[in-house]
Write a structure and sequence with these properties.
Largest interface: A-B, 96 and 103 residues
Number of strands of chain B: 0
Largest sheet of chain B: none
Number of helices of chain A: 7
Order of helices and strands of chain B: HHHHHHH
Mean pLDDT of chain A: 86
Shape of chain A: flat
Structural class of chain A: mainly alpha
Oligomer: heterodimer
Number of helices of chain B: 7
Radius of gyration of chain B: 18 Å
Shape of chain B: globular
Chain lengths: 202, 177
């Protein structure tokens, strides 16, 4: 991780450029979110460029999932950091974000300019129900990894109910989820400790 | 205005765990309360964001920023969205790379994941009621519900890429309506 930082200046700039360019090229291929990008990233950086070892990449994906932001951009930033420190992280993130940013600028201008066009209106009438279905399906997919017992199932239902009925602020909802998880975790540990002590007595 | 855009999306970027879909209710709350985007307009933005490459939350941020203050607004929004990730990743990478193995982090995620699932499901209900798919404030249009159901069936039972489904539903809209 540190070895690249001692490279002479031209080598270092060249490294930053190739990090930036690698992510710039791969980023426009990530339709539909980061999970699509995982096998792509693996092929590019483990097999072809050999920037990351196979056993490291799983860790990078795991930790990228646990920090806020998209998993694709996050794992890119991690890889960039491992290759060339903080400048490497920035180069990777800039490379991953810039192409989609430019594409979205064009789409924004197009949507804004053509919103009243009847054909655009008709297309949107067909697309809106589909995007709602896609959101519901995304919820189902994440739910498959989130719902691992009765407690988590109740928490999903509770979240939907609290949002629908009380209109709780989403940030508060997210934070209370994390806090509740920590509380439940320590409760479980205490119960387990008690059980163990009980077993010893018997 | 640019600073406000940056700050709002910085706040959203800071809590955007578990992929962008869970951020849709938060984006909705922040953006419609400031009247940056009309509630009916937001789903169109999300639709275009979902049809474009890249993460849906970041894409929506760019479009909302552009709507509010042009290219500079888009830049402010995306910087706000990605800076928290960059800062947190640098801290994690420098000091505790194995953070996801820590018991407290593990239990936090045990609670975070179901909440994120709930938020995404809530987002789908919110936009469904607002857009005439299942009744509610947007009324009820059986044809919209039919399109939603067909799309869901395609997502569940085929491996067709969502972008194609979205494009096809746009064409369907032009033919049907």
């Amino acid at each position: 991780m540190q070895s690249e930082q001692s490279l002479p200046k031209p080598g270092r700039l060249h490294m930053l450029w190739s990090i930036f360019w690698a992510f710039f090229k791969i980023s426009p291929l990530t339709f539909g979110g980061g999970y699509v990008m995982i096998p792509l990233l693996e092929r590019e950086f483990v097999e072809r460029k050999k920037w990351v070892k196979t056993e490291e990449i799983a860790d990078i994906f795991a930790v990228s999932e646990s920090v806020p932001g998209s998993i694709a951009v996050n794992s890119g930033t991690f890889i960039g950091f491992r290759l060339a420190g903080i400048p490497g992280a920035i180069a990777a993130m800039a490379g991953a974000v810039m192409p989609t940013f430019l594409i979205l600028l064009i789409f924004s201008a197009l949507l804004l300019g053509n919103q009243d066009n009847p054909i655009v209106q008709q297309a949107l009438m067909g697309i809106r129900p589909t995007i709602v279905a896609l959101i519901a399906y995304a919820g189902y997919k994440i739910g498959r990894t989130a719902v691992i017992d009765k407690t988590t199932l109740v928490m999903v239902a509770l979240t939907v109910a609290v949002m629908l009925v009380v209109h709780m602020h989403p940030i508060i909802t997210i934070l209370s989820g994390g806090v509740l998880g920590i509380i439940l975790g320590s409760l479980k540990k205490r119960i387990q400790a008690k059980d163990n002590r009980g077993d010893l007595k018997c | 205005m640019l600073i406000e855009l940056f700050l709002v999306f910085f706040k959203i970027g800071l809590v955007s765990f578990g992929g962008g879909y869970a951020m849709l209710p938060l984006i909705d709350r922040e953006v419609t309360s400031k009247a940056w985007v009309q509630p009916e307009q937001l789903l169109d933005i999300i639709a275009v964001a979902g049809m474009s490459p890249g993460p849906i939350a970041t894409n929506s941020a760019v479009m909302i920023g552009y709507n509010v203050a042009g290219v500079l607004g888009a830049i402010a929004a995306i910087l706000g969205m990605v800076l928290p990730s960059l800062i947190i990743i640098l801290i994690v990478a420098m000091f505790f790379f194995q953070i996801q193995e820590h018991p407290v982090v593990k239990s936090a995620f045990y609670g975070l994941r179901p909440v994120i699932t709930g938020l995404i499901l809530y987002a789908s209900i919110l936009f469904a009621t607002r857009n005439g798919i299942i009744g509610g404030e947007g009324g009820f249009e059986p044809m919209y519900l039919a399109i939603s159901v067909v799309a869901l069936i395609i997502f569940f039972f085929t491996r067709i890429h969502p972008v194609f489904v979205l494009v096809a539903s746009g064409l369907t809209g032009v033919i049907l309506f």
